[in-house]
């Protein structure tokens, strides 16, 4: 049986039953604010307006509190002109019914509950919380950042000090409210956890993009990038992976004839959208999301599409976690005399990569390369020539090459951070480690009754997409895991639409936290 705590918003019928029982035990039997009743349950007068935050372990509510933002507050009835005691211009809520079972009354529980409350208040844009603090606990409340105001209220059996906590006071208290005193586990595609050397590079004094020091840094970073993926050249741009694909679209607009774009996920669809916006002439082959391409059917499509000059596909379709076989795509393109372009934005650093025989490939500085977002890269293996028609100057790959890679300002700190990340990038060591972690993670998912969208040899170990079945809701599950200290990807539009969550393994995940994740996942999937 698990002994881990989960801090969350109450949303289960059994949680509300136990909340009423704990409310009775605390505010009838221990603090005599209300009269005894035979049901030994106390439903709060503001129950329908309350949001209850609870600490749960093994389907047992150990501690709770309620947050309410609707006036009048209970303190409005106890203090005349309540607002006169409070800092002006604040967004207020009231925190009430703080209660815990006697066996777990310790600062760890309270701090975890306060941490969850702070997260909830931030999501609701509250910046000041009011409480009625039990007189015997004033020292603890003050330590947590609460400030007393006004006279003591209540009756002889239950005396309370009105107090409030602002976000500023909470930060100034410098008290760690992290659940279990541990940093949240990052299963996100970005931002990824940054190493000390990458963070240091980001805070170093910036360099002029025209200085010899910066040019040396830029060219060395280019060499490291091309060596990593076996490409001859690379252009570095300020922007995201989407910008890199726009650069590719610009280059394809210079070729005669038309192209074929492959799509079996969200990012294949985005290539189609970008090609349309650039006015490219092309056909598309769209498969159901998560379905792999077969060489024979791809050959057949190309054979029945005359005039093709180029083929554009996603290497790692990160919306599904599927690896589209680059060796097969290279073979098809070479046999049919097509220029092959690959979206490698999610693949670089997350999958083995060899860009020989690839015409153009896009990438970015974050995700698998584990630097900060902000730089886009386009790899190529051919000699560029002046464009036969004007291209947007910011997207002109030839213009970048003619300017030694730096035609305009490029933030030196972003390049320095990428250079630091590349120094630490060791695919020979990292890929097997991620594969081992992926196997353990998939075992956890199986034990929880979840089936990844993509499995087997086409599945990328760095990304697992998990469809959820009703009545499970991806937002609810994602929110619960976040509250438990596990950051999963679930807020992108296409994930919400399909009721999917994703787990990315680009940040380091200790084995001990994977066990904790299994417990948190079981709780998050519990029946509503």
Give your account of this protein's structure.
By secondary structure, the chain is of the alpha/beta class. The chain has 3 domains: 176 residues, Aminopeptidase, CATH 3.40.630; 105 residues, Aspartate Aminotransferase, domain 1 (Alpha-Beta Complex), CATH 3.90.1150; 229 residues, Aspartate Aminotransferase, domain 2. It is built from 17 helices and 21 strands. The strands form 5 sheets. Strands 1, 2, 3, 4, 5, 6, 7 and 8 form an 8-stranded mixed beta sheet that branches. It has a 7-stranded mixed beta sheet with strand order 10-18-17-16-13-11-12, sandwiched between helices. Strand 7 and strand 8 form a beta hairpin. Helix 6 packs antiparallel against helix 13, helix 7 runs parallel beside helix 13 and helix 14 runs parallel beside helix 17. The longest helix is centred in the C-terminal third of the chain and has 21 residues. About 2% of the residues have low confidence.
